[in-house]
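Hi F.,

I've been meaning to write this up properly since the lab meeting, where we talked about keeping a consistent format for the predictions we share between groups. The idea is simple: the sequence comes first, exactly as it goes in, then the structure tokens exactly as they come out, then a line or two of notes. No screenshots and no reformatting. I'm using this chain as the first example so we have something concrete to point to.
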Amino acid sequence: MARGGAGRGRSVLLLCAFLLAAGCGDPAAERFERAEKELLAQRMESALSGFRAVAREHPQSRYAPAALLRQGDLFGAYYRNFPAALEAYGSLVFTYPGVAEVPSALLRIAEIHLLQYMDPAAAAAELERIRKEFPRFERMDEALFLLAHAYSAAGDADRQIAVLAELVGKHPQSNRSAEGRWMMANAYLGQRRYADSEREFRKLLFLAGDRKAAVRARWGVAQSLEGKGDLPGAIAQYEALRSDWDHPEYVAEKIDRLKARSAVPERREEAGDR
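Output, unedited:
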């Protein structure tokens, strides 16, 4: 009986010690949670103060990287203080290179470089780092889409198309993939790679879920055929979309011009026969 009583006593002491430790809590977690509540309540200054306190006072905590990410988001999206946002994101990436928040911070840094500072080269460098070092990033479709825009802004159509092909191939269900198809088709068209642009626009025509998208895709097919020199094919596509185009008179004029161009060789042959 004495042994049993002693065993039960030790168990009770261990349980009490566990409960006491649990009651003490994690000060970093509590501070982070309070800051999150302030953020949800739209008390931005208080939230920012809380996140900064977590990162400054508890740098070894698992909440410090998340606090820096929140801090950067507040500085960038709410206060529009982009240098401060870049400093917070950069501190996260430099101090905690292996944590899950790093690719999100790199994505934010790239957005600021591209959309605020108009620096596509700097944006592309950050996004390529995500692409190479964090291939399983859950928002990779967003990163690739932004990277395609960066290469487009830099005038590097070949890299833009390569990134868009990766986006479409690896993330077919993403909304950004759908928009990426349009970007890729138009990039081919801009490069005068008419066979490639026709192929992509025909895919878009097949996938079109509404009349507006179908008209837009058919216009791309028509332009591609026109670029290839297939004027009868282009005329047929323009005819098919004329009644649905916002300005049918413009399409009618274009059809007339193409018909005139396609008739020129015929008239020359007739003159030669005579």
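Notes:
Residues 12-23, 266-271 have pLDDT under 50 and may be disordered.
Residues 43 and 118 are 31 Å apart (CA to CA).

If this format works for you, I'll send the rest the same way.

G.
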